[in-house]
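Good morning C.,

I know you're traveling, so I'll keep this short. The sequence:
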Amino acid sequence: MTQEPFTMRDMAGVPVLVCAADGPPLADERAALDLIGDAGYRGARWVAVPAGRCGDDFFRLRTRIAGDIVQKFANYRIGLAILGDIQSRTATSTALRDFVRESNRGGQLWFLADEDALAARLVESGT
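The tokens, ready to paste straight into the viewer:
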């Protein structure tokens, strides 16, 4: 039985495209546009991607991959949530730690532990 690449969920009244743990990596703008297309087609306002699907270069800010991907989502007015434990990555990179902190203060990109945290954040933000 093949797992669906994503599911649509209603979280606090917000339609969210939740990506499966297995699937293509969110490694470049093309992958971002594929997710944005799926989200737009289904009416999602947020996309939740497991952190394990973000390649190493996503978390190396000097590659600019994360920024390029986030910009694509912003252009289409779709929020992006990276779900999972990235503490081992932020522990070794001050720049990444600062990026995560600043992103979590905004309304476009959030780094959260899991779907429950995303649902709570959506309630809190009134999104």
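Safe travels,
E.
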